[in-house]
Amino acid sequence: MNNEEPSAELREINQQARECWEANADWWDEQFGEGNRFQLDLIGPSTERLLALNPGDVVLDIACGNGAFSRRMAQLGASVVAFDFSERFLDRAKTRTTRNSELIQYANIDATDKAAVLTLGKQRYDAAVCSMAFMDMATIEPILSALTELLKEDGCLVFSVLHPCFNNSDGTRLAIEEADQQGQLVTTHFVKVHRYITPSSSLGVGIPGQPQPHMYFHRSISELYNSCFRAGFVMEGIEEPTFQDTRSDTRGPFSWDNFRDIPPVLITKMRLSRKQRPNLS
User: Fold this and answer.
1) 24 exposed, middle or buried (CB, 10 Å; 0-12, 13-18, 19+)?
2) pLDDT per residue as tens, the chain (281 positions)
3) Which helix (H) or strand (E) holds 228?
4) Beta strands in 56-150 (DSSP E)
5) Contact (CB, 8 A) for 163 and 189
6) Distance between CA atoms of 85 and 174, rounded to whole angstroms?
7) Which of 73, 77, 206, 241 has minimal CB crowding within 10 Å?
8) Which of 167, 171, 219, 220 is CA-nearest to residue 193?
9) Cα–Cα distance for residue pair 211/3, rounded to 1 Å
10) Is residue 263 a contact partner of residue 242, using CB atoms and an 8 Å limit?
């Protein structure tokens, strides 16, 4: 979808997505806390490297959830404006923010509502972060367009998503045992993908046991990146981290810990191009 504003159908789907997160927010907050293994071992370190924050930087945290990464950025010395469309998540975020609260401002805003997002201040931000949330949005064009006005000159966006190639609703993780040359059994792990290019939406589970499934919006890498390029961003960095802990895994044969050569997440740094940046005067 190339238009900045979502259609009526997408607005309805986005409302369904909001209702799912309102129902799941309390449970997710209890499970996630200040970060689960995906966040602490994979997403957080890569995001921090790509952001390369300096003390005093002003950062926009898009779809902040329970505010875990907002608090981490404040701990690193950044001033953070964080927003989410789930009031329950924001309530949890505020409750958890007991340190550096003067550095974090929370707002209840839908990232697909460009006009609402722009009320957060044009050309105010050194950087923006969207941690594992683009795949939860019915459309990403409104927030990308808004960022061209919210970010300072040469401001950057760092976002993370489930890896579109290997970790989507149409992929299956496989574990196949075979004998090695010494006659011992080893397990070889594969990801089988039967659909990738076509954008799709589906219900899925992020953490087993959550109260109800939530909406996922699959976009291929080309669709994801071309949306950024059309908005005026250029790519500056990319990371595809995997779990590398060599200790015996107790989480089962299909845990991502066993897929050490297949990345479950994709983290990308985009920067506004001076040549393509819209005239804001």
Assistant:
1) buried
2) 445 666 788 778 888 888 999 999 999 999 999 999 999 999 999 999 999 999 999 999 999 999 999 999 999 999 999 999 999 999 999 999 999 999 999 999 999 999 999 999 999 999 999 999 999 999 999 999 999 999 999 999 999 999 999 988 777 777 776 656 566 767 777 788 888 999 988 888 888 888 888 889 999 999 999 999 999 999 999 999 999 875 545 567 778 788 888 999 999 999 998 655 554 44
3) helix 221-231
4) 58-62, 79-84, 104-108, 125-131
5) no
6) 36
7) 77
8) 171
9) 34
10) yes
Joined together, the tokens standing for residue 131 give 């941690």
Burial 83-107 (b: 16+ CB within 10 A, else e): bbbbebbbbbbeebbeebeebbebe
C-alpha distance from residue 157 to each of 51, 78, 154, 176, 232 (Å): 8, 15, 10, 39, 12
Element (H, E) at 162: strand 151-162
Q: 249: which DSSP letter?
A: P
Q: Are 177 and 185 in contact (CB under 8 A)?
A: yes
Q: How many residues does the chain have?
A: 281
Number of C-alpha atoms within 13 angstroms, CB side, residue 15?
7
Position of tokens 């960022």?
A: 147
For 22, phi then psi, to 5°, come to -65, -40
